[in-house]
């Protein structure tokens, strides 16, 4: 059932099934195709838009007031918005926040990202829940000249995220040392003094706050591009290996990541920690499978149960694929599950300090309940250093 077009409508979101959502365009003009997801976080639109895991996706915000605090240079998770576009209920207003350096719409325009406002995001979110994350095309033309048939055809032509390796596109081009001294959160978890644990972090589209959290927990972090080989990883003589979050299909990314992880595990017994895409690739390397979810998890208040302590953490989430816990091999146990749908949220090896989680302990945006995982990784490195000293 298409929504009617009004005279002030300058943008249109077309779903591949032909459903149209008209609204007012803001940000860049032009057209983009993507998979559509919804995010339920009530804060942190800038962190969400700049999270490289959103490559290939347009984000619908269920929270209506998006843009009201503007954007600033400190809250970027990457050097630009990476999500393809955004869909919001209310048009962005003049920012009202002392940290704002720019309006959301101006920032989006500068980075070629399209926004559409005035959309019934509740109805859209229901459609996403019912039919699964749809393929969409989003167009913005200030004159309102939008060829609807062509737009729907573009949405239909979008190949989808299954089988798509996007980490290769968003990763860093060269290795570098993380030397920012900022805290992971205002007022908390400061960077430690003294020589840190030597950690190699593979950048599949890493959020900056993950690297800050690793540094805050006492790690000296060298970041390597996604396609780094085991040889390149081991050349840094790492005391720990970190596998980052990232966009796209883990099975496609696994083509180069899985052989690297397996070889590192054959040659050393250093602690390994993975987050989100890194979690999925660790699971693949250990012999499990990943599957596409209906509409994924994207928000900042997802309850997760730690099966070993019985504790519940409220977590930040952003994933459209999941590890099939039925396929975990012997020697690998499920450590965390989602209390929304029982899907896998964490694994660990029983005989090695190798573990990973599906959610985002670095928050940004979201609650900080799960920061302990960074401390756990650092403690595992310290313990191994003592026994091998
Ligand atoms: N945040 C992430 O690392 C996302 C992982 C993967 N691209 C997914 O959608 O499941």
TrEMBL record:
GO terms for molecular function: ATP binding; carbamoyl-phosphate synthase (glutamine-hydrolyzing) activity; glutaminase activity. It comes from the Bacteria. Pathway: Pyrimidine metabolism; UMP biosynthesis via de novo pathway; (S)-dihydroorotate from bicarbonate: step 1/3; Amino-acid biosynthesis; L-arginine biosynthesis; carbamoyl phosphate from bicarbonate: step 1/1. L-glutamine binds at residues 53, 246, 248, 277, 280, 318, 320-321. Gene3D superfamilies: 3.40.50.880, Carbamoyl-phosphate synthase small subunit, N-terminal domain. It catalyses: L-glutamine + H2O = L-glutamate + NH4(+); hydrogencarbonate + L-glutamine + 2 ATP + H2O = carbamoyl phosphate + L-glutamate + 2 ADP + phosphate + 2 H(+). Keywords: Amino-acid biosynthesis, Arginine biosynthesis, ATP-binding, Glutamine amidotransferase, Ligase, Nucleotide-binding, Pyrimidine biosynthesis. Its EC number is 6.3.5.5. Composed of two chains; the small (or glutamine) chain promotes the hydrolysis of glutamine to ammonia, which is used by the large (or ammonia) chain to synthesize carbamoyl phosphate. Tetramer of heterodimers (alpha,beta)4. Small subunit of the glutamine-dependent carbamoyl phosphate synthetase (CPSase). CPSase catalyzes the formation of carbamoyl phosphate from the ammonia moiety of glutamine, carbonate, and phosphate donated by ATP, constituting the first step of 2 biosynthetic pathways, one leading to arginine and/or urea and the other to pyrimidine nucleotides. The small subunit (glutamine amidotransferase) binds and cleaves glutamine to supply the large subunit with the substrate ammonia. Belongs to the CarA family. PANTHER family: CARBAMOYL-PHOSPHATE SYNTHASE SMALL CHAIN, MULTIFUNCTIONAL TRYPTOPHAN BIOSYNTHESIS PROTEIN-RELATED. This is Carbamoyl phosphate synthase small chain. It comes from Meinhardsimonia xiamenensis. The gene is carA.
């Amino acid at each position: 059932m298409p929504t009617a077009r009004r005279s002030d409508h300058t943008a249109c979101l077309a779903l591949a099934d032909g459903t149209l959502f008209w609204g007012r365009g803001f940000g860049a003009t032009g057209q983009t195709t993507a998979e559509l997801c919804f995010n339920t976080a009530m804060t942190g639109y800038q962190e969400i838009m700049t999270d490289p895991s959103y490559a290939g996706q347009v984000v619908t915000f269920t929270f209506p007031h998006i843009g009201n605090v503007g954007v600033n240079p400190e809250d970027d998770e990457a050097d630009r918005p990476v999500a393809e576009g955004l869909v919001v209920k209310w048009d962005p207003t003049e920012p009202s926040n002392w940290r704002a350096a720019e309006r959301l719409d101006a920032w989006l325009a500068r980075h070629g990202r399209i926004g559409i406002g005035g959309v019934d995001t509740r109805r859209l979110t229901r459609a996403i829940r019912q039919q699964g994350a749809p393929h969409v095309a989003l167009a913005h033309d200030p004159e309102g000249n939008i060829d609807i048939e062509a737009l729907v055809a573009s949405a239909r032509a979008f190949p989808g995220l299954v089988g798509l390796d996007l980490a290769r596109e968003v990763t860093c081009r060269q290795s570098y040392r993380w030397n920012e001294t900022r805290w992971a959160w205002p007022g908390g978890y400061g960077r430690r003094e003294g020589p840190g644990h030597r950690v190699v972090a593979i950048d599949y589209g890493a959020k900056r706050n993950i690297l800050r959290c690793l540094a805050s927990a006492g790690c000296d972090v060298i970041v390597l591009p996604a396609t780094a080989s085991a040889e390149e990883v081991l050349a840094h003589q790492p005391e720990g290996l970190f596998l980052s979050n990232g966009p796209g299909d883990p099975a496609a990314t696994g083509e180069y990541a899985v052989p690297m992880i397996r070889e590192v595990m054959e040659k050393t017994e250093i602690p390994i920690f993975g987050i989100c895409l890194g979690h999925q690739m660790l699971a693949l390397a250990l012999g499990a499978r990943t599957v596409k979810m209906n509409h994924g998890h994207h928000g900042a208040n997802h309850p997760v149960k730690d099966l070993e302590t019985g504790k519940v953490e409220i977590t930040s989430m952003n994933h459209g694929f999941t590890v099939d816990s039925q396929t975990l091999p012997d020697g690998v146990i499920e450590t965390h599950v989602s209390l929304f749908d029982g899907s896998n949220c964490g694994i660990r090896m029983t005989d090695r300090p190798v573990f990973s989680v599906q959610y985002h302990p670095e928050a940004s945006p979201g609650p900080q309940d799960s920061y302990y995982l960074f401390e756990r990784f650092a403690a595992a490195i310290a313990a191994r250093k003592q026994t091998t000293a």
